[in-house]
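RECORD TYPE: inverse folding
INPUT: structure tokens
STRUCTURE:
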């Protein structure tokens, strides 16, 4: 499962919400902010912030918020984009079966009508579970059998001679 919490935070949003909810019974018992903070291991100013939010909006004021911008793509469009990407670039008219940011920007625009900059589309890809990968470059003439033989025979003797020389 993907962890969707901010990289500078030790806890996920759900875990932070659960921690805030632990303070509610103490707020209801009218405990002092200092006492609640000591009980839960939370700083005084943070407990004060929580208490103000709880007094204004109740438990809803302590619920996890959502940080960052709202996606320009609806969940339905995101699912569609993911499906198209997994079909491969060549199926969508690109030469070579690999995706570049430029290709993705163009494809997402044609599939959804949503315009992204090349430099921004990678955020969408990351949210959809994709990562940047560089294609492995190998010579077409590569002979796996010859490589295996070289490793098992020639390399072994070279290695033995090197250890004897030392």
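DESIGNED SEQUENCE:
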């Amino acid at each position: 499962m993907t962890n969707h919490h901010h990289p500078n935070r030790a806890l996920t949003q759900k875990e932070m919400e659960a921690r805030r909810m632990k303070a509610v019974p103490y707020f209801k018992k009218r405990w002092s902010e200092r006492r609640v903070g000591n009980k839960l291991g939370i700083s005084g100013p943070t407990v004060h912030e929580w208490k103000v939010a709880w007094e204004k909006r109740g438990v809803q004021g302590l619920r996890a918020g959502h940080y960052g911008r709202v996606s320009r793509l609806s969940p339905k469009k995101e699912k569609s984009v993911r499906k198209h990407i997994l079909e491969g670039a060549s199926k969508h008219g690109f030469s070579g079966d690999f995706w570049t940011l430029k290709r993705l920007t163009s494809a997402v625009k044609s599939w959804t009508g949503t315009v992204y900059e090349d430099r921004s589309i990678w955020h969408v890809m990351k949210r959809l579970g994709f990562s940047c990968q560089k294609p492995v470059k190998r010579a077409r003439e590569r002979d796996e059998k010859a490589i295996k033989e070289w490793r098992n025979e020639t390399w072994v003797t070279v290695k033995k001679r090197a250890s004897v020389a030392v």
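NOTES: The chain has a mean pLDDT of 87.
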